[in-house]
Amino acid sequence: MSSARRHRFRAVRRRESTGTLAPVARTGIATAAVACFVLGGLGLASAADASSSPSVAAQAPAGEVVVVPGTAESVTARATAAVAAMSLSERAASVIMGHISTTDPGVLRDYMSTTGVGGFILMGANIPGSEDQLRGITAALTLDPAVPPLLGIDQEGGDVSRLPWDDFPSSITLKNEPPEATELAFAGRGALVQRAGISVNFGIVADITNDTSMFIYRRALGTTPESGTSHVAAAVVGEEPESLSTLKHFPGHGAAPGDSHRGIPSTTKTYDQWRQTDAVPFAAGIDAGAPLLMFGHLAYTSVDEKPATLSSEWHRIAREELGFDGVAITDDLGMLEASGLSEYRDPVSNAVAALAAGNDMLLSVLGTNAQTAAELTAGLVAAVDSGALPAERLDEAAVRVMTLRLQTASAGRGLVPCSSCAPAA
User: Fold this and answer.
1) What's the mean pLDDT when you consider all of the chain?
2) Range 184-204 burial, b when 16+ CB lie within 10 A, else e
3) Rounded to the nearest 5°, which phi and psi values hold at 364?
4) Rg of the chain on CA atoms, in Å
5) Beta bridge partners of 44
6) What is the model's pTM?
7) Which key words tag this protein in UniProt (predicted)?
8) What is the 3-state secondary structure (H, E, C) of the chain?
9) Residue 105 CB: number of other CB atoms within 10 A?
10) Region for residue 287 given its phi and psi (left: phi exceeds 0; alpha: psi -120 to 50; beta: otherwise)
């Protein structure tokens, strides 16, 4: 994500004693974490090696270790080198965001160790009764804070809320409030996600609809392109830099009636119509700096008969037309199987097709077990070996995921925060 798109604002932190919102300097969280870690994607160097940074070299005694701030280019270079050193199987596993239903830290740690997956999504079955206990779980999932997995959660608030202690307003009411209210709510929500040791929030529903009978209506932040634009951008600004924002469900569930958990909702809306309506909030979120874009199991048949998750054309549009340069992630691939359509019965085939279409990370939840990640990994390896999946596409995806993981580490998100952080006075 280009630094020009990054915004620095003030955050809010939930005041534990009263449940009210108290302003705190956002930079304090990242700075405190990085103070006991490193910057720039693990940029450690000796004082002698820091000669290219005169101010740093002048201040550090010879022989001491200093922290060298990294650039976006250096993080990408480290990510490329890390992926190049991986085996094919390790690369395949690194683009999977897996899941198992348990709150046992030992089982979760073993799962991460044996599968080598690049991420894990925490669902309701992974959330214990307290924030302190949840920090123990995220610590168990993080085998190496220097290269932390992308830990994700669906913390929209309201109808979709995994954290019982999140009492910030949600889209149910925010869609009728000024954008400032959305920024404030998502600043608090992002802080709660960060406090739990989770790096990615799948929390910003950029879909728009004014039809109260639509499946996605209550979860959508906007009812029109204009309101969606202001609220989505505000949500991204609010969450950054506490958590990594994800826009969903691209290219827009609001135009496609039905529930994508039970089928493939579709619409005949044309590209030009989409560009003037459903596309607008996604473009605003991308411009505001959202580093992840979730592709939905939705078909805009005038653009591509395939659901967007499996459409190379929709991935081209996202990157070339909207300028998205972050990590593209699927909605839960298990939903494709649950659609009941024969062409989506095979989870491995779905994973291969999704990666080939342009997704960088494969999310797998519904119907998964402890063996699912290994089965998907083996399927991706076989697809590369057979030529069904270009090795270059897997490498590209793995580098994008690794880059975000290293950026997560450099921001201190790979470290579990303190158990009793007091808000600023």
Assistant:
1) 86
2) bbbbbbbbbbbbbbbbbbbbb
3) -135, 115
4) 21
5) 67
6) 0.84
7) Glycosidase, Hydrolase
8) CCHHHCCCCCEEEECCCCCCEEEECHHHHHHHHHHCCCCCCCCEEECHHHHHCHHHHHHCCCCCEEECCCCHHHHHHHHHHHHHCCCHHHHHHHCEEECCCCCCHHHHHHHHHHHCCCEEEECHHHCCCCHHHHHHHHHHHCCCCCCCCEEEECEEECCEECCCCCCCCCHHHHCCCCHHHHHHHHHHHHHHHHHCCCCEEEEEECCECCCCCCCCHHHCCECCHHHHHHHHHHHHHHHCCCCEEEEEEECCHHHCCCCCCCCCCEECCCHHHHHHCCHHHHHHHHHHCCCEEEECCCEECCCCCCCHHHCHHHHHHHHHHCCCCCEEEECCCHHHHHCCCHHHCCHHHHHHHHHHHCCCEEECCCCCCCCHHHHHHHHHHHHHHHCCCCHHHHHHHHHHHHHHHHHHHHCCCCCCCCCCCCCCC
9) 16
10) alpha
Instruction: Establish how many alpha carbons lie within 13 A of residue 71's alpha carbon, considering only the half-sphere containing its beta carbon.
Output: 4
Distance CA(97)–CA(95), nearest Å, equals 7
Residue 258 CA to residue 265 CA, distance in Å, equals: 5
Residues in the chain: 425
- Name the percent of the chain lying above pLDDT 90: 76
- CB contact at 8 A, 299 and 256: yes
For residue 398, the one-letter residue type is: A
In order of 208, 220, 229, 247, the CA distances from 212 in angstroms are 11, 11, 19, 21
**Per-residue tokens: 182:** 């959305």
Q: Burial code of 323-342, b = ≥16 C-beta within 10 A, e = fewer?
A: ebebbbbbbbbbbbbbbeee
160-161 and 119-122 strand pairing: unpaired
The pLDDT of residue 226? 98
Confidence at 257, pLDDT banded by 50, 70, 90: confident
